[in-house]
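Wed. Picked up where I left off yesterday with Heme-binding protein. The coffee machine is broken again, so keeping this brief.
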Amino acid sequence: MAEISLRKARTIIRKSLEKGREMELKPLSVVVLDAGGHVIAFEKEDGAAPGRFAIAHGKAYGAVMLGMSGSAQMARAEQQAYFMAAVNGVYGGQVVPVPGGILVRDKKGSVIGAVGVTGDTSDNDAEAGLAGIASAGLTGEG
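Structure written out below (tokens, as returned):
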């Protein structure tokens, strides 16, 4: 099974932050997780709130643990709030079911990790993260 290397994780972060600057977003925080939900890399821009790691992590963690993007999780939460509440109980409250949690797939379509971006609107966070993932030659599902 393929995995996200530290080099690719750093590229994802760098390019996500560059996209955020290009879009004139608020300061972003970006985390990259492996397929088991473990942190590979994290960065927060100057001026980002200190609690942003937990939000970025929660977006990515929910994506990789459930195998569904943040936008899909949000739709599920709107349709079945009890399910997402139960999931959050199972995962100790670590799931943040909104856009900005992006599944990362390899060329074969296998999930190899997730990216979490936070700092601006959830949709803008997702756009920046998707740009970072594409820059690393991987496919993002936001």
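Quick read: The beta strands are 29-34, 39-44, 101-105, 111-118, 139-141.
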